[in-house]
Specification:
The chain is of the alpha/beta class and 347 residues long. It has three domains: 92 residues, 3-Layer(aba) Sandwich (Udp-n-acetylmuramoylalanyl-d-glutamate--2,6- Diaminopimelate Ligase, Chain: A, domain 1); 210 residues, Hexapeptide repeat proteins (UDP N-Acetylglucosamine Acyltransferase, domain 1, 3 Solenoid); 31 residues. It has three helices and 40 strands. It has a twelve-stranded mixed sheet. The longest helix is centred in the last third of the chain and has 37 residues.
C-alpha cells in the first residue's frame, strides 16, 4: 500500500515541510534510503545523512532546523522515533493475520480456547489450559497443563510454557523463551546435591515482551512475577522467586539470581548481574556488565563490578589510566625520601 505525506502527517498530527503529495510504500534507514521509502532522524549523529538520503519522506523532531537544502519531504513531530514506532505498528496491524487451528496441532479436550485464536501445526496445548481471545500460538510451541494465556498474546515458535504458569493480555513471547522451568534449587548434604522440588509458578502480567531464548524460572513456593509493561531482551535469566517491577527494561544477557526484587521503571544494561536476595529500588539505572551485590536505593545510577555510583566509577576510570605515571612518580618520591633520610642520618 502507498501512503502520501499528507496522509502520514494527518495520522501523526505532524507538520509537512515539502511536497504533501509524495507517496511511500516502505521503510528504510536514513543512511540506506531509497525512493518511495520513509525514514526518520532522531539521533543527532545521523544528521548529515538527511542531506543525502534518497528516501522521499523523513520524520524529524519539531526542533530540527536544516543547515542546507534537503531533497526529501519532512514531517515534523514531537518525537520522530515514537512517530516511526506508531507507523510501524500501523503497518504491522494492516498485514494479514493468521487465524484458525492448523492440522497436526494438539489441543487437549479439557483446554479452553477463545475466539479468533491461531494455533499452528505441531503446537501443543495441555489439559485445562486456557487461551484467550485473539491469541496466537505458533508452530512447535508448548503450552503446558493448567497454563493460562490472556487475550491478544503472541506465543512464537519454540516457546515452552511449563504447567501452571500465567501469561497476561497483549504479551509477546519470542522463540526459544522458556517460562516456568525449575529454579536452581538444591540442598547439599555430605557433598551430594539433593533437588528441592519447585512447587510454584511464573506470573507474567499484561503488556510484557520477552526476548528469544530468555528463561524465567518457576518459584520454589509462590510465584516468580514479571509485572505489567516489562520488556526483556534476548538471552536473559530470571531465577526463581524473583519479582521485576512495572515498566522495567533489561538488555541482553542480564542475569538475576534467586529471590531478588527489581523495582519499577528500571533500566539494566547488557550482561548486568544481580546477586541473590537483593532489592533494587525504583528508577534505577544499571550500566552494562555491572555486578550488584547489595541493595540499591531509588534513582541510583551504578556501574562496575562490584557496582558503585556512576560518577565515582568514571572518576576511578580516569585515575586507572594514570596509574603507570602515578607509579613512576611514587617510586621517584620514595627514592627522594630515602635520599633525604640518608642525608639527615649522616648529619
Amino acid at each position: 500500500m502507498k501512503f502520501s505525506a499528507k496522509e502520514i502527517a494527518g495520522f501523526l498530527k505532524g507538520e509537512i515541510i515539502g511536497d504533501p503529495n509524495v507517496e511511500v510504500s516502505d521503510f528504510a534507514k536514513i543512511e540506506e534510503g531509497k525512493p518511495a521509502t520513509i525514514t526518520f532522524l532522531a539521533n543527532p549523529k545521523y544528521t548529515h545523512f538527511i542531506y543525502e538520503t534518497k528516501s522521499d519522506i523523513v520524520l524529524v523532531n519539531n526542533d530540527f532546523e536544516p543547515e542546507q537544502a534537503i531533497r526529501a519531504t519532512l514531517i515534523k513531530v514531537p518525537n520522530a522515533y515514537t512517530a516511526l514506532a506508531s507507523l510501524l505498528e500501523m503497518a504491522t496491524n494492516a498485514a494479514p493475520k493468521k487465524s484458525g487451528v492448523e492440522e497436526m496441532s494438539f489441543i487437549a479436550p479439557s483446554a479452553t480456547t477463545g475466539q479468533d485464536i491461531y494455533v499452528g501445526a505441531f503446537a501443543y496445548i495441555g489439559e485445562k489450559a486456557e487461551i484467550g481471545d485473539g491469541s496466537k500460538v505458533y508452530p512447535q510451541a508448548y503450552v503446558g497443563d493448567n497454563v493460562k494465556i490472556g487475550k491478544n498474546t503472541t506465543i512464537y515458535s519454540g516457546v515452552k510454557i511449563y504447567q501452571g504458569c500465567v501469561v497476561g493480555d497483549n504479551c509477546i513471547l519470542h522463540s526459544g523463551a522458556v517460562i516456568g522451568a525449575d529454579g536452581f534449587g538444591f540442598s547439599n548434604e555430605d557433598g551430594v546435591y539433593h533437588k528441592i522440588p519447585q512447587m510454584g509458578n511464573v506470573i507474567i502480567e499484561d503488556d510484557v515482551e520477552i526476548g528469544a531464548n530468555t528463561t524465567i524460572d518457576r518459584a520454589v513456593m509462590g510465584s516468580t512475577i514479571i509485572r505489567r509493561g516489562v520488556k526483556l531482551d534476548n538471552l536473559i535469566q530470571i531465577a526463581h522467586n524473583c519479582e521485576v517491577g512495572k515498566h522495567t527494561a533489561m538488555a541482553a544477557q542480564v542475569g538475576v539470581a534467586g529471590s531478588s526484587k527489581i523495582g519499577e521503571n528500571c533500566v539494566l544494561g547488557g550482561q548486568a548481574g544481580i546477586g541473590g536476595h537483593i532489592s533494587i529500588g525504583n528508577n534505577v539505572r544499571v550500566g552494562a556488565q555491572a555486578g550488584i551485590i547489595s541493595n540499591t536505593k531509588d534513582g541510583a545510577e551504578i556501574i562496575g563490578t562490584p557496582a558503585f555510583p556512576v560518577k565515582n566509577y568514571f572518576r576511578s576510570s580516569i585515575i586507572i589510566q594514570k596509574l603507570p605515571d602515578m607509579y613512576k612518580q611514587l617510586s621517584n618520591l620514595e627514592r627522594e625520601v630515602e635520599r633525604l633520610k640518608k642525608q639527615l642520618n649522616e648529619k
